[in-house]
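User: Sequence in, structure out. Go.
Assistant: Echoing your sequence, followed by the structure tokens.
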Amino acid sequence: MIISNARIVLENKIIHGFIEFDNNRIINIKTGTTNKASYDAKGLYLLPAFIDSHTHGGYGMDFNMLANHWYKENLLNYFEHIHQEGVGSVLLTTVTCSTDDLNSIAGNYRNAKDLDKNNVIKGWYIEGPYISIKRKGAHNQKLIRPIDTNVLKKLKNLLPHVTKILAVAPEFKNNLSKYKIIKKDYFLATGHSDANYWEAMKSFDEGAKRVIHLYNALPNFDKRTPTILNAIFNRRDLKCELICDKGHVAPEVILNTYHILGADQIMVISDSLLTKGLKDGTYVVWGTEVDKRGVLDYIHSTDKISGGNLPYHKQIENFGNITKCSMNEILKVSSLNAAKSIKQERHFGNLVKDAESSFVLLDKKYRLITTFIKGVKI
């Protein structure tokens, strides 16, 4: 198949041309025109399908459900809807749970992949239990604990070839001392943390190159006492997650962050809960009642934010309209940086020969117009 008359967005340039592909991979990317085209992009911007690299689910599916044996219908429903957001890849993200549940999730991961006909799931993001009690957010405090290298070794052995990201609060109960042991098997992320400047810098030096939902579950700035935020902004080797539903982070702060870090360091994430795509109302998430009110979820009958549910393409649209960034920068924050963060940019999240044939077409206002998944128009 060939999509022609497209503004093809590459990492450092945009070309007007056509892209040839089959149901698996990109075959060629060329400038100019062709009379063999099967789809006319009509001058729209062509980018890789989005990567939501921190999401807990949506459409009634929560990835912690993989600890049980009744998730199949929910997961299939999730797969039916996720491409409507322009998303071609996710890192299924779980929250703090028991060791038995971690083992069960690992055991059911392959079963989930058997249902994943479009190869949506690209890895497992373990967000907890090795986080800070003080910055736990909606996580269950009773299950938060320090790193257990034996548990992590077992998970690695259960899923030896699966990409795994591990969220860690470096300051919590000597977690930092275990980085050297675990970083060969896990991509490390710093967050849900009360680390000071020096603890955070040490965690980055020891291999944690990802920041978990920047600003959320982290301390604020202090003009005299540097915090983890100062450490983050003094580095240029990090990829920082940013929720762009305009509720978790104010638009003005999103703009500040773009000016400070630039698009090379930002990954837009949804951090969505199972409530995404459902009607407003009260739901049980991780054992707690939450109220879905618009794009945000709140602890039941309170104004305390527990999560979000804005579809991913709307988060990208928000980021673009807030920052007025280029399409090359949209490529980075929506897919390429996430792929680079797990060293997969030659395989997906990028427009290069032999990468996955999943694409989105956007207009100049960053709006999602069309999605192709594994060579098929959705």
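User: And one key feature?
Assistant: The first strand starts at residue 2 and ends at 9.
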